[in-house]
Amino acid sequence: MNVPFAMLQQAPSVHCFSAAAKHQQDAAEMFEAEGEHDAAVDCFKTAAEYYDMENSSSRANTCRLKVAQICADSGKYDDAWRFMSK
């Protein structure tokens, strides 16, 4: 893991959940681009939770869809379905 990823992972210490969510989403997109799908899924899930805390359901659902897409692309169809049905 390189330094920018590590710095973005520290975003949850920010007191504003929307900013922390955006940092997690940015980190997830970088992990996804690097092919680190497990880390991307973790960050997208965290971002979705933070967006939910800010009552930003549209952005939370965007992150959930990315989790489902990554899981489905990896052949983890049950995980994709399970996460989307929450």
Rg on CA atoms, Å: 12 Å
Number of strands: 0
Structural class: mainly alpha
The major pleated sheet works out as: none
CATH topology: Serine Threonine Protein Phosphatase 5, Tetratricopeptide repeat
The CATH architecture comes to Alpha Horseshoe
Textual characterization of the structure:
The protein has 86 residues and is mostly helical. The chain has a single domain (16-84), classed as Serine Threonine Protein Phosphatase 5, Tetratricopeptide repeat, CATH 1.25.40. The protein has helices at 3-9, 17-33, 37-53, 57-73, 77-84. The mean pLDDT is 86.
Give a short summary of the structure.
With 86 residues, this protein is mainly alpha-helical.
Considering the chains and any ligands shown, give keywords for the structure.
mainly alpha; 86 residues; Serine Threonine Protein Phosphatase 5, Tetratricopeptide repeat; 5 helices
Write the layout of secondary structure elements.
Blueprint: H1 3-9, H2 17-33, H3 37-53, H4 57-73, H5 77-84
Helix pairs in contact: 1-2, 2-3, 3-4, 4-5
